[in-house]
């Protein structure tokens, strides 16, 4: 629980201006010892700008930052860390060719006579990871780790020296359930030691779990700072977006038609075993499981990304069991991956090029096979309007956009080809509630236009509010199908953990 008294960290009238953009405008914020203070707001609200100033990654245009009661100028990340302020950003600052141990001690390596003491480096790294209960091999290169494992390295790095303030930017976006439990346990330990934690998250359940106070930002301005315990979800969403939470999830009409996709005893090399299911036009099928139990792996195999070892996949009446992604795309199947930066987008290309990339072989080339710029622009403009992407962003590199706008571009790639089957793997990861609402409306439009939609999600409310049917996997096998009044949180959790459904209060 947060302590009272003078703030550990405080900003007053903080502003940050870029050419033509006021990213932060007269923002006040304070952090107490031993509290978790959540920053809440839509993409572009100013959250990332604020934490970059607090971490020394950029400097304010005006305003005051005070640390432990005195004004400070944080000219660099190194200066901030020297004071005890460390940040773990969504964009990792790791060296992929170095080992876990070398990354953890980078810049502070123990030496003797100018030579690195590698045994001591490995020993200190193991101790850091042991304290956090992170199970990582310190000799592995960081480039060989999963994104979740890299996140764990980043978190461990932040605690190698004095720590007074820890800033976490969407830290669970890449973590499994078990890793998230470990992260929260770490947060609780740090809080008990008086560390102040600034935490950015869009996930209501996380906020309910760890927040002491919440500061809501909108359009670069401070809307309110409130106690987490006395605020419900409806009020938070209304402060952030001006809309009620009831408006976030649309009602999607169910008009199940012909079967488009059939899986018969499908198994994969990784984790999927003997899965049989059907997906029909005019409906949303949800796939739910704990992380690592097969929901993503199953549909990656359907789209030809992972090899199928057993069974058969039929799409629109044809056997496509070992087809390649390009072939399936041409047949009318679209897969939206969970990692937009590494799998979904060409970050150096502008948004118009990204949106139309899937169509370059299917109608945007003229005589002699040359790309027709006019048709590219017309299609990109049309899709941008549908996904509520501002026209000015079409000419910008995708890597320069916020996470929410990047996700809109990714959706736009699917809309451009007018697919028959859309597979959305974690479709709203790392985006705010307002962007979620816009993307859910797109899912509604696609379904009611007679497409088939599969949603793979670790966000259970997404499955409960959007899916007409839900298939639950455990240990790679399908253990149940739920629909209608039977599709409840307690029923899904019961299948997750192989136990009878219990009331939500007990199951959570």
Across the major sheet, the strand order is 6-9-10-3-11-12
CATH topology term of the largest domain: Rossmann fold
Q: For the report, how would you describe the main beta sheet?
A: 6 strands, mixed
Helix content: 25-40%
Number of domains: 3
Number of strands: 22
- Please identify which CATH superfamily of the largest domain we are dealing with: P-loop containing nucleotide triphosphate hydrolases
Low-pLDDT stretches are 501-508
Kindly provide the radius of gyration, computed on alpha-carbon positions and rounded to a whole number of angstroms: 24 Å
Keywords:
globular; alpha/beta; 6-stranded mixed sheet; 18 helices; Rossmann fold; 33% helix; 508 residues; 22 strands; disordered C terminus
Structure description:
This protein is of the alpha/beta class. The protein folds into 3 domains: 9-245, Rossmann fold (3-Layer(aba) Sandwich); 248-332 and 420-508, Rossmann fold; 342-418, no CATH class. Helices cover 33% and strands 24% of the residues. The protein is built from 18 helices and 22 strands. The protein is globular, with a radius of gyration of 24 Å. The two termini are 22 Å apart.
